[in-house]
Amino acid sequence: MEQFILKSEHDAKVIFRSRRFDNNKWLESFTVELEAPDFRASVQVENPGYGHSPSQLFQRLAEQWSGWKGSETWHSMEGELEIEATCDATGHVKLALRIPGYGEFLRWSASMWVAVEAGQLERLAQEARAFFVADA
After folding, report:
1. CB within 8 Å of 125: residues ≥ 6 apart
2. Cβ 34 vs Cβ 97: under 8 Å
3. Rounded CA gap, 9 and 115, in Å?
4. How many domains does the chain have?
5. Separation between Cα atoms, residue 126 and residue 9, nearest integer Å
6. How many helices (H) and strands (E) does the chain have?
7. Which entry of 30, 56, 88, 115 is 20 to 30 Å from 16 by CA?
8. Whether 47 contacts 28, CB under 8 Å
């Protein structure tokens, strides 16, 4: 799978692309793009050998499709990307993505959220695995 896309109403979407695996099929890096009308931000996310890919977050969400308390989170080991998932009593899942300002000279940050239905979580977990895991 070349891209993993999360879409929400109002033309908001998150696109994961440009994944790179090492010789041992470990996901070394990927690019994430946040897009909405008149808004676009992107960052390359490094995934060192001691990190975990976002596919684990999507799998946890799918296992809890009936809801959870608080939030489920994932963040890259180097701090380029943060994802927070919350749900409400009616089965709506809010995925908030944040590209924090990091590094000494980077003076900007970006964030957005997309809403999905709890019934979509299993499909999203499968798509995430196909994107983030080699030979999935």
Report:
1. 55, 58, 59, 61, 62
2. yes
3. 7
4. 1
5. 21
6. 2, 8
7. 88
8. yes
Amino acid at residue number 7: K
Record the tokens describing residue 15, joined without a space: 């696109």
For residue 121, count other CB atoms closer than 10 A to its CB: 22
Helices (H), the chain: 55-63, 121-132
- Please answer whether residues 74 and 47 qualify as being in contact, where contact means their C-beta atoms are separated by less than 8 angstroms: no
CA atoms within 13 A on the CB side of 21: 12
CA dist., res. 35 & res. 89, Å (int): 27
Task: Give CA–CA dist 110/69, Å, rounded.
Answer: 26
What digits encode the pLDDT tens for the residues 5-35?
999 878 899 999 999 999 988 899 999 999 9
Are the CB atoms for 29 and 54 separated by under 8 Å? no
CATH number for the domain that contains residue 90: 2.30.31
Specify the pTM: 0.90
For residue 80, the enclosing domain spans 4-132
